[in-house]
Amino acid sequence: NFYVYILYSETANSYYKGQTSNLNHRIGRHNKGYEKATKIGAPWKLIWCTQKRTRGEALILEKKLKNLTKEKTIRFIQKYDEESRALMADWGCDQDADRSVSIRSPFPAH
User: Fold this and answer.
1) pTM passes above 0.90
2) Which of 1, 68, 73, 91 has the fewest beta carbons under 10 Å from its own?
């Protein structure tokens, strides 16, 4: 299985969208500065993710998400926030804060 995810950096007020087969490991790499695109902005918090069966499906969704403007990204997250939170909890993505993996959204609950 593959994950498509959106990270948020409060310090950079920025979103990063990606895909991976190992979500916790990938987020750790983002927060340790190993990834060029997210080196600035740590800590990055997981605010949305979903699961796909194949890397091909994950890449298609990742590309669509990367084409969204910041405003459309925010609307997308708000629309699918509750569903994503339930899935992330099921997958064990709600790790403690010192690993910088979080399902806390920067948006008010709806």
Assistant:
1) no
2) 1
